[in-house]
Structures are given as structure tokens and as C-alpha cells.
Amino acid sequence: MALSREQIAQRVAQELKDGYYVNLGIGIPTLVANYVPEDIEVMLQSENGLLGMGQFPTVDEIDADLINAGKQTVTMAKGASVFDSAESFAMIRGGHVDLTVLGAFEVDVNGNIASYMIPGKLIKGMGGAMDLVAGADNIIVTMTHASKHGVSKLLKSCSLPLTGKGCIKKVLTDLAFIEIKEGKFHLLERAPGVSVKDIIQLTEGELVVTGDIPEMKL
Amino acid sequence: MAGFDKVVSSYEEAMDGLTDNMTIIAGGFGLCGIPENLISEIKRKGTKSLTLVSNNCGVDDFGLGVLLPNRQIKKIVASYVGENAEFERQMMAGELAVELTPQGTLAEKMRAGGAGIPAFFTATGVGTPVAEGKEERSFNGRDYILEEAIVGDFAIVKAWKADRYGNLVFRKTARNFNPLAATAGKITVVEVEELVEVGELDPDQIHTPGIYVNRVIQGSFEKRIEQRTTRPADEAEGKGE
């Protein structure tokens, strides 16, 4: 069975480490916050200028001056700090954020990522995604492995305009956890009940399968 | 105005001197911390062919979006747009030029503009459409592109508090691009929720020193929320991050 959005978030959360500063993109990455293991502390960075993002506010706590990068009302966790956008991106570009999780339309075997623009369709913009992929060393891309029509999103070469070049090393899809190195995809784990054959079939770029591939534990 | 007193008494006075074809840098992220009354004044004035530099372009009836129906914006430099239908229509019809700029690059362009730095190198955008036509250079084995600073004829800024000298304090994430915009305007106009007397703000707590600010006006704000997300009150004591 392919992973649900929640399950993808759950698996990503297993990659969090105690003391990590983490930036979560919009969509599935945001859900990761719901699965932070109880025994570790992480601090969420929101690129509009907040380090230490808390949970959503109660109705009484809503504050128009306190939102996240998805423009949702949020609260501040204990120990939070606020700052301007240049400071926020100094953290990101300076490599101070330990883990970035973001979505994509396509990734390829060379670690290229396309996530913001489909030519001919409405272009809304890259927001902070280009800065995040260029600035972070440790990035996990979350996405569906293939389109609804079975067209792979893990490609030999991205077909869409890039968000970043050669910057992605890890991809978690609804079918598999994949590492990118030396110009190839490497299968690390498969979703429960999904066969290696299924994954190979839906992966356009070269996929290296070494030994028995374990199922993800959720 | 006398000495360092930057306070003006009307929005008309606040935006005096704004003319067609000027570049305006605006603070705000989404609808958070936007100079909503200064934007309304630009709409009222009817100034045309403006270049707007702002992270976003508001929604149909609020924020910079209100400048769209009368075609006041010629070009927008932003990182994320399209939250409104009229914007989409004008962009698709080629009536509105859009220069998409990565958010961190946009912030740095403003910061550099205000700091007298004409351009800077960044890894952001290398190998993407953003790099097209830009000088590329390698430092320590990594590629970077040259991005130019932005200076506005006007900067419009929303702060929480100001004193009469234009020293500013922002509140929570309403700070965002505002302090950067404040530095990068030839004329920087700030509207605030609270105006205090000189000496009332703790010098250690001032985010933007008054030297960057030309005009200050006190306003009242709608502070519209774009995405109202909440949790149930009975979970208020629940696990925090």
C-alpha cells in the first residue's frame, strides 16, 4: 500500500534528531510537526521570521501578527525568537538549519529538483524554496512517486524548470525512501506491502537496489 | 516638521511626492504586517505605472491587490503571487510584468539596497530560470550568481510602535520585510499602531533606528488574517513544540 500523506510525514519524523532546527515546507512537510518523537526536542523555523513555531492557536489566542510561512495563524513555542526576513534567510543560506523538508513536482538522479513552475500554467512563484534548497545540506523531499496516470516523478533529468541544481540527496515518496548519490537513485526502504518491482517500474531514473530492501516501520 | 520629528498628520502628506512610474518597496508577508492604509492612499491618489517590490501582492480586495483594478501596477517584483484572480488575469493577459525573485534574495536585495551594496553573490537560483542573464562566478568550488540591490523611490512600512523621531519597533512576525524595506527607500514612510513620545522606547529594543525613516503616521488597522487556523480550546494544555 502506498503511504498516506500522514504516513509520509510519520516516516520523515523518524529522521529528526534531538536539538535539530528544522524548516518544514507547505503541504505534507507541515504534517511532520505532528509526529515529532516525544523524547526529543526540535525547533521549527518558519522563513517569514520565526524560530520556535508552536501549535495552532486556540480561537482566543489568534494573533494577526503571528503567522507561519504558509500564512496560517500559529503560536510561539517556549524559547522562540522572531526576526526580519534577511535574518531568516541568513539562517537558511548560511547553512544553520539542520534539516529542510519540502515538496516537489520532480527530482532527478543528479539531485536536481523542480518544484515551483509548470510552464503554461499559472506560476505562483518559488517563495523561499530556492533559498532553502541552495542553503541546506540536509534536505528531504516528500512527494508522490508517480502521477495519477503512473508517470514517474523520479527522473533521469527534470523536465520542468529547476528550483535547485544538484542539491537533493534524500527523497521520501509514498512508495519508497530513496537516496541520491553518484548520479543514481538508491533504494533504502519500501512502503509496507509495496514490492521492489513496483518501485522500479515507477522510477524512470536509474535505481540501484542492493540486497533485501527493508519495509518502512511506521 | 521640526528637527527629527517625522510625524505627519494625514495620509495625503505621508505619500506626498509619489508620482507615476516610481518604484515602491513594501513591507509585509502575505497580509501580515502590510502598510494597509498607505496602500489605500496610493489607490486613492491613482498613481499609475508603478513598480512594486514586495514579497506578495495581496488578495483581491486587500493589500497590494487593491491597486490592480485600476491598473496602477506596471511591474511587480515578488517571491510568491497569484493569491488573487485579478492578478492572474492581468499577468496572463500580459498587462502586468512579474519578476519572480527567491524570497531570501528579495530580502537581501532590499538589505543591500539600504546598505549601499550594489550587488551580491548568492547560490540561490543557480541552474534555475532565476540565473538567466546573470553573471555567474565560482568561490571555493561552488557556483554563485550576481544579484543586484534594489532601492525604492518610496518604501512603505508598517511597524507596531514608533516615536516621533521614527525609531521603530515591530511586533512578532509582522516584522518580516518591513525593517529591510525601511532601509531601502529614498523616502521611507512608516505607519504605526502606536505613536509614543521620544524617550519612551528603550534604545536597546529599537529594531529600526529613525535615521532610515522620513515620515511617520499613526493609523488604525484591519489586520486581516489570510489563513485562520486554530486548535480546540480543550487542547490548550496539550503538547507544545
From TrEMBL, chain A:
Its EC number is 2.8.3.5. SMART domains: CoA_trans (SM00882). One of its GO terms (molecular function) is succinyl-CoA:3-oxo-acid CoA-transferase activity. InterPro entries: 3-oxoacid_CoA-transf_B (IPR012791), CoA_trans_fam_I (IPR004165), CoA_transf_AS (IPR004164), NagB/RpiA_transferase-like (IPR037171). It holds the Pfam family CoA_trans. Coiled coil: none annotated. Keywords: Transferase. Belongs to the 3-oxoacid CoA-transferase subunit B family. This is 3-oxoacid CoA-transferase, B subunit. It comes from Colwellia psychrerythraea.
Automatic annotation (TrEMBL), chain B:
The keyword Nuclease does not apply. One of its GO terms (molecular function) is succinyl-CoA:3-oxo-acid CoA-transferase activity. The keyword Transferase applies. Pfam families: CoA_trans. InterPro entries: 3-oxoacid_CoA-transf_A, CoA_trans_fam_I, CoA_transf_BS, NagB/RpiA_transferase-like. It comes from the Bacteria. It is an enzyme of class 2 (transferase). PROSITE patterns: COA_TRANSF_1 (PS01273). Keywords: Transferase. Its EC number is 2.8.3.5. Belongs to the 3-oxoacid CoA-transferase subunit A family. NCBIfam families: pcaI_scoA_fam. This is 3-oxoacid CoA-transferase, A subunit. It comes from Colwellia psychrerythraea. The lineage of its organism: Bacteria, Pseudomonadati, Pseudomonadota, Gammaproteobacteria, Alteromonadales.
